[in-house]
Amino acid sequence: MSWSQSITWLGTPTGGTQSWATGVSADGSVVVGGALVGGHYRAFRWTASRGMQDLGTLGGGDAIATDVSADGMVVVGTALNALEQWRAFRWTPESGIQDLGTLGGYESSAFAVSSDGFVVVGWAANEQQYHRAFRWSATTGMQNLGTLGGDTSWAYGASADGSVVVGFTFEANGRQTAFRWSAATGMQLLGALGGTFSTAEAVSADGSVVTGWSSTQQIGHYHAFRWTASTGMQDLGTLGGRWARAIAISADGTIIVGESFNAAGQQRAFRWTLTGGMEDLNQSYACLLTDGSVLHEADALSPDGRYIAGRGFNASTGQYEAFLLDTSCTSHHGDVNFDGCVDDADLLQTLLSFGNTGGCLGRTDVDCSGEIDETDLLTVLFNFGRGC
Question: Are residues 149 and 199 in the same domain?
């Protein structure tokens, strides 16, 4: 058995000055995003063995990857074509970068792909050059999801099979409001947290849980939210500041990540859970950031919630870079010091750590609960002498 939590800074391409991650595969082996190289944005697909692979463009000078399928083999994003128009793209190793077209206008952008890689969502311009949320598949092409009275709508997230789409739409009264769309229900408004603005960023695998951010009754305050049909829009709060944006959600809808300002006005990556609420990842994983590095945004989450990807400051290079955080913890039988024998040393280490919480507990967190408590102590006691 093993315990491992780690952060990997992905660096930048040759000549690059910064990078950021926007998507991660289910097993954490593939990360996608964008990098700034020579004044141009470049879309990348990263693996540990290959590093950052440039996905190219559609004939122009810039491209940004925004999401990746569960198996890491389909990447979507936006790229400039030869006419310097932004276009939604879908990339695979076999076909390369593919222009998904528009709804009759000049430009489009893709923000999310279904887990199987078959459905892409984003926005596209119609003939009047208004932006409309779209749902694309190889069989149906680009479908216009419309609006709810206004001129504009964007789609940011899709369920695992692509049957549910979320984003925002402008209403006839000019308000920007989060929506949830399905073929059966059409576009439904999700409301707001007392304010006049909201947008949905992501949705759970089955399409039942939506997350995003919304204005509140306090002017200038924007909070992350979690929505279900039964509870409506739940305020997830912030890290102490005025603003928090939920960006990604686990498959079961119980884990949400994003970015927030803390009480000192600093931008920090957060994770929210049903049991623990909102936590600053810089505090929870401080043991991995001993050189002064900072995690600013958590922009992607693997379906099981294990892997988190985003953007931060890598103190060792002095650059803003994409990161991959592995939050894994493997439960064990009480061999805290991993010497093959559950003995006094393991018991003492557990006792000394008793009551500690967070993401840097090491193997003393025997049951991987995020707290050193009675369960961990009893596991060591019940297995005392094992392997000795």
Answer: yes
